Amino acid sequence: MQFIRSLYFTNRLYFSLAALVCLFVVAFFIPVLLVLAKVAFGVLLLLTLLDLLQLYRNKEGVFASRSMQEKLSNGSDNDIYLYLENKYNFAVDAEVIDELPFQFQRRDTVFKARIPAGRTHIIHYTLRPTKRGSYNFGAINVFAMGKLALVKRRYKFAQNQEVSVYPSFIQMRQYELMAISNRLHEVGVKKVRRLGHSSEFEQIRPYVAGDDQRTINWKATARKSDLMVNSYQDEKSQQVFCLIDKGRVMQMPFEGLTLLDYAINASLVISNIALKKHDKAGLITFSDNISNMLPAQRKADQVRRIMELLYNQKTKYQETDYERLYATIRHKIKQRSLLLLFTNFETLNGAQRQLPYLRAMARHHLLVVIFFENTELHAELHKPATNTEEVYTKAIAQKFDYDKRQIVKQLQQHGIHAILTPPKDLTVNTINKYLELKARGLI
Fold this sequence. Notes:
Elements: H1 2-6, E1 7-9, H2 11-29, H3 34-56, E2 62-67, E3 71-73, E4 78-86, E5 92-98, E6 110-115, E7 120-127, E8 133-137, E9 140-145, E10 151-157, E11 161-166, H4 169-180, E12 201-206, H5 218-224, E13 228-232, E14 239-245, E15 253-254, E16 257-258, H6 259-276, E17 280-286, E18 290-297, H7 302-311, H8 322-332, E19 338-342, H9 348-364, E20 366-372, H10 375-381, H11 388-413, E21 417-421, H12 426-439
């Protein structure tokens, strides 16, 4: 039974059989060809048996395994490796089917490989999940063909693996490495000139090109006969809270991810950078009620705690209650903090309804409202209108785009910082704003 389940015929064998059938049909009208047809059938049968013998004389002719990280990164390309070992004494042509989790909705993961005798072959591919949660990988199916490629033997390796998809820790590590090596400008993070310094003096050191000339210490310069400057230490231990709206306005998708998941990924990155800058990072998630609140701290495991909290976020996309958010912040956050509010406003009226609560938050904290450009509208704005319907569509798109710009102006008029950003640039624009506020000494 196991033999029958593992045995498959190749297209080459089917084509050969089809040709034989045709030959037998022709032999019915031309009897002299009947002998040739019988001989051909016998040869094909013999070759098939030889191919079967080659494939089945080894109990385990091929071995396969899958290698990946224990966790996958949401919205990023994750590396998956398939290791194929050929235990036959001849090269094997193989088709490999990896059973992927249903969330990917992919049926094209069929790989072809030629594995030399006694060697190992590695297949590499990437997966980009777009939802957090648990993913179940199934078996690895290897269809090995013999030298004559008439039959295939199926090997099935039960590599059942349950893997969790977390907020984009790959993106977090990329920004962290770039920050360490001073290469953040490569991804669009701007170098912001410091407009002032904290009152905490650190040391006197030699002047280097680019130092603020106002920090030159003339007395030390006279003693050393060389330009010396006062060095000041960045203000540390400021509280940075990411406020993530889980309401219906964050359900809109962009390149597979919802706006909520973009906000979650950006929150993980900015929290990690804030901790590297010696600030305290905290988190609040909310919709019609307050879902979670993680106090701002600088503990060694704070990034892990933030990541776990973000991973477990679930929502029904209800209407957001900003009044309850304000009450929670007023009651729970006593120290003046930087609040990075990730939300979305599609209309000016929608923003104006929440403006009283945003103004109340801004009176006690430094508030930055981060919301999203509608990239579909931008496509309509730049597309020429050729008929009446397209003229109306373009006019509506212009109205919505105008409202977005007006929201930014209204927030700024009330002393609230605002970022209007495409989803793909969310992380970079948030980091730029954080570094700008640090450079200006506002936090």
